[in-house]
């Protein structure tokens, strides 16, 4: 969808994300409402919650519990002062150091538009405490997203070059230690969106959320509610007991539940309020998206994340649009 069709894509102001309750890093999520049938407390998946952006980062260990991948790390960013901080990464880095894990890959599910990626900074920090630095991987569709936004943010080919170490095609496999990770292309929220399948766990990023939250928006440039429906249908064809780990959680205020990390495919199929199996999903998703405000950190996030979390300039470009003629 073009930016002219959605003026908020050029608007520097935005409503804050839905409120939630922060929980401490690496604290397993539990449900008082019985919504989660999978066990998020297993010892090979360690979640970290970034409260300012309601983002889940996952440290996933291999079967030997010595090698690991990190999925979707986030940085702190204060838009008023322009200050970027890696304080949000310190609990993760400290745990990796204290337990002697070797991180082989840092994996992004997509170019995020609601927080600044910690991938590049995390790679630098981990390189100081392990034998070799991890590599940063993202779906191969990222090149399409880069082309869509490069001109808007003044990014030339040189700026975009070598932003990521690995561009991952759908069904590609990555080995880390004694385990493997399979890439699943899940477009819709963004064209480059992928999920990562490790054993019986799918790290679904922003394609699907907890059943009582629904699904991700699909109105970003290159996004598609129709593609999202197709991706979710593919996701929901996985075995019933597959654990689906979400990239964000926004607990509905009326539930009183804490932030949670995962559900099962069976539970998603039966209870997701935006199920793609319902008639009118595309219309429902499109109508809902039309009323959503821009993510609060849209412009800083996109131009930082398009280049893999590199700070190319000492400022961000914020396009503006006035409601009167110049």
Automatic annotation (TrEMBL):
Keyword flag Metal-binding: yes
One record GO biological process: hydrogen sulfide metabolic process
InterPro entries to which the protein is assigned, alphabetical: Metallo-B-lactamas (IPR001279), Mito_Persulfide_Diox (IPR051682), POD-like_MBL-fold (IPR044528), RibonucZ/Hydroxyglut_hydro (IPR036866)
Protein keywords: Metal-binding
Pfam hit, one: Lactamase_B
Metallo-beta-lactamase domain boundaries: 54-248
Single GO molecular function: sulfur dioxygenase activity
Entry superkingdom: Eukaryota
Protein name: Related to metallo-beta-lactamase domain protein
Provenance organism: Pseudozyma flocculosa
């Amino acid at each position: 969808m073009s930016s002219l069709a959605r003026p908020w894509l050029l608007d520097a102001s935005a409503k804050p994300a839905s409120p939630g309750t922060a929980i401490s890093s690496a604290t397993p999520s539990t449900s008082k409402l019985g919504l989660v049938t999978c066990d998020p407390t297993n010892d090979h998946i360690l979640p970290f919650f970034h409260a300012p952006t309601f983002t889940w980062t996952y440290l996933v260990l291999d079967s030997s519990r010595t090698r690991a991948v990190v999925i979707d790390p986030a940085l702190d960013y204060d838009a008023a002062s322009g200050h970027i901080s890696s304080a949000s990464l310190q609990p993760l880095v400290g745990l990796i150091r204290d337990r002697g894990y070797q991180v082989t890959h840092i994996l992004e599910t997509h170019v995020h538009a609601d927080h600044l990626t910690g991938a590049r900074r995390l790679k630098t920090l981990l390189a100081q405490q392990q034998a070799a630095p991890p590599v940063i991987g993202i779906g191969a569709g990222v090149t399409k997203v880069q082309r869509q936004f490069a001109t808007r943010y003044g990014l030339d080919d040189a700026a975009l070059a070598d932003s990521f170490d690995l561009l991952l095609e759908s069904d590609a496999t990555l080995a880390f230690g004694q385990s493997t990770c399979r890439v699943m292309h899940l477009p819709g929220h963004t064209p480059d969106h992928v999920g990562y399948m490790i054993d019986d766990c799918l790290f679904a990023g922003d394609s699907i959320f907890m059943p009582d939250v629904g699904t991700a928006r699909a109105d970003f440039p290159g996004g598609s509610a129709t593609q999202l429906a197709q991706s979710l249908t593919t996701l929901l064809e996985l075995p019933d007991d597959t654990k689906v780990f979400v990239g964000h959680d926004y607990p509905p205020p009326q539930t009183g539940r804490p932030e949670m990390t995962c559900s099962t495919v069976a539970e998603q199929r039966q209870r997701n309020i935006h199920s793609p199996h319902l008639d009118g999903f595309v219309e429902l998703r499109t109508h809902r998206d039309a009323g959503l405000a821009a993510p609060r950190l849209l412009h800083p996030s996109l131009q930082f994340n398009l280049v893999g979390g590199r700070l190319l300039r000492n400022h961000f470009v914020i396009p503006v649009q006035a409601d009167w003629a110049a």
